[in-house]
Design brief:
Blueprint: H1 3-12, H2 19-22, E1 28-29, E2 32-33, H3 64-67, E3 71-72, H4 73-84, H5 94-100, H6 107-117, H7 126-143, E4 146-147
Parallel strand pairs: 3-4
Antiparallel strand pairs: 1-2
């Protein structure tokens, strides 16, 4: 399972993770190829086929709230931060977002996530990569059923 899939599972629950989602970057969805996000994150793919509302041409095994974009990412992450006990700023930091979800936020993990989301910049510039990664991750979550505050998608 990829890091993005792990993040989605933690936010949306296990029911939101059909097997087709885990391999989306290696397969086609509804007959169209899935491309990773580009540096301008507006091209981050949705894993749902807009014509059929399904994944890979078969009915998606996801809760209605995921299909309609009602999974409140901000509320889930705010709750995770409150339970974590550390002072974490998930709204501005990819490291804090991953820590809030109980994930490994090491540079190696972030580089792997950047690869999954299609980062083309210099991974040696971790500050630039982290800023891109935070925005790309939130965009990908929004594209895949998450309700993300608009100010975090700009």
């Amino acid at each position: 399972m990829g890091i993005f899939s792990s993040i989605k599972e933690k936010l949306f629950g296990k029911a939101a993770q059909p097997a087709a989602v885990e391999t989306a970057s290696k397969t086609t969805i509804g007959g169209a190829g899935v491309a990773p996000a580009t540096a301008d994150v507006s091209a981050t793919p949705s894993l749902k086929d807009d014509a059929t509302g399904t994944l890979g041409g078969t009915p998606a095994a996801t809760p209605q709230s995921v299909q309609t974009g009602n999974v409140d990412v901000a509320a889930i992450l705010d709750d995770a931060v409150a339970k974590n006990g550390q002072k974490l700023d998930w709204r501005h930091s990819i490291v804090d977002l991953m820590k809030a979800l109980g994930m490994d936020a090491s540079l190696a993990e972030r580089k792997e996530l950047a690869d999954e989301l299609g980062y083309k910049g210099d991974k040696g510039d971790s500050a630039a990569m982290n800023m891109w990664l935070h925005k790309a991750l939130l965009k990908a979550l929004a594209d895949n059923g998450g309700k993300v505050p608009a100010e975090l998608l700009d």
